Amino acid sequence: MLKNQSHHQNKIFKASAEIILGKIPKLGELTVPLAPSNIEMFGPRSACLISETGPFWVSDTGHHRLLGWRNLPTTDSQPADWVIGQPNFNSEGQNAKAKLGRNTLNVPTGICSCGEGLVVADAWNHRVLIWKILPEESNVSADLVLGQADFNSNQPNRGLTAAANTLNWCYGVFYHQGKLFVADTGNRRLLIWNQLPQENGQPADVVLGQPDMQSRDENGGSSPTASTMRWCHDISVWGDNLVVTDAGNNRVMIWQGIPTENNTPCRVVLGQKNFDLVEMNQGVYFPKANSLSMPYGVAATQDWLLVTDTANSRLLAWKRPQSILSLQGADADLVIGQNDFQSKGENRDYGLPTRNSLNWSYGINVHKNMAVIADSGNNRVLLWKIN
Question: How many domains does the chain have?
Fold first, then answer.
């Protein structure tokens, strides 16, 4: 297994990250919460490469801001060109320690492009912000808000109960062929808009993980099934199949196709042997090639599904089979960030970060031959070439 794994890794992922964004600690220097600047990040949760040459955007979650680079960064610790959510690069604080508005943020998490625009999950403001055109300067105001009636409100579920037009601690966003997907984590559900919304507070069209738009119980208020979720976090489409990380159930859910009806059950889970098992690493301390512990991020290439196995500080990859049904509980084909499938230490052996180690990596985005990894525990983002 290890020989094959190494062979796969050399063919698919380069030996180490090409570029490291964020402050690189020196020998003997502790990794601590960092003062904001145009270089330093604090617990980035997600990143998005718009095209091969840029722009490039990062959710600098702990500093409550987005950082933008006009072009794809080419040197380590390259300073950002733009900031959204704070008046300048040296400020921090929820909603910029000021009034909630069109360009303030409170724990921004998922980020993705949508056609010519940008979408961000503003998690603790319980809303999703949409820019119709990609920002090309600092503090551009968002054009649309979902989950709230306007830009001046931020109550979970609008201060009431869950509905088709509310959000509660929304974490992940994904756009695919005109559809917008939002992981509404605090409501334990995934919402789908069949077309990119055009109005503030527009209701979603489809819900997964709950029987209806008003329900929000963990695992549907009962035992886990192929239809239920605990903490869904990130979304991708692999081939034509919807993929969602269900971190709270320590699994990845895969549907055949993209569901069009509420509460459609998934067909396959990764990380667990069947639909009603949910324990971390399948109930043992050390991981295996087919187990997961709080997987947060997911991205797909034509041939590979990449999952950030966050609490195991590793990245797993599954090669696409002829039928996704054969993936039920399957072993991953590749591990990145650890020496083997049985290891889980942060930065491998709890050491300093290296160019090929991970520490609670939350997010992954892939654009052609570049994987972008939000390596949150190391307060950095990795640009890592793949074949």
Answer: 1
CA-based nearest residue to 88, from 45, 130, 36: 36
Q: With CA atoms as reference, report the closest residue to 24 among 77, 68, 61.
A: 77
Domain of 69, CATH number, reads 2.120.10.30
Please state, in angstroms and rounded to a whole number, the distance separating the CA atoms of residues 353 and 276: 36
Nearest alpha carbon to residue 384 among 321, 363, 294: 363
Res 6: pLDDT:
42
Asked if residues 266 and 257 have their Cβ atoms less than 8 Å apart, the reply is: no
State the pTM of this model.
Answer: 0.96
Domain containing residue 71:
2-369+374-378
- Nearest Cα to 109, choosing from 122, 126, 93, 125? 122
How far apart (Å, rounded) are the C-alpha atoms in residues 6 and 334?
A: 8
At 30 the pLDDT is 62
**Could you tell me if residue 326 is inside a domain?**
yes
Residue 79 lies in a domain: yes
How far, in Å, CA of 365 to CA of 309, rounded? 14
Q: 58 near 383, Cβ under 8 Å? A: no
Residue 338's closest CA among 349, 351, 326, 323?
A: 349
Q: Is 380 helix (H, G, I), strand (E, B) or coil?
A: strand
Decide: 78 and 97 in contact? Cβ < 8 Å.
Answer: no
Mean pLDDT per segment of 10 residues, for the chain of length 387 residues?
42 90 80 82 97 97 98 98 98 97 98 97 99 98 98 98 98 98 98 98 98 97 97 97 98 98 98 98 98 98 96 97 96 96 94 94 96 97 94
Interacting residues of 6 by C-beta distance below 8 A, sequence separation 6+: none
Asked if the structure places residue 42 within a domain, the reply is yes
| SS3 per-residue string spanning 15-82 | CCCCEEECCCCCCCCCCCCCCCCCCCCCCCCEEEECCCCCCEEEEEHHHCEEEEECCCCCCCCCCCCE
Output the 3-class SS for 4-21. HHHHHHHHHECCCCCEEE
Buried b (16+ CB within 10 A) or exposed e, 128-151: bbbbeebbeebbbebebbbbbeeb
The verdict on residue 384 lying in a domain is: no
**Burial letters 189-200, b for 16+ CB under 10 A, else e:** bbbbbeebbeeb
Residues near 1 by beta carbon (within 8 Å), at least 6 away in sequence: 289, 341
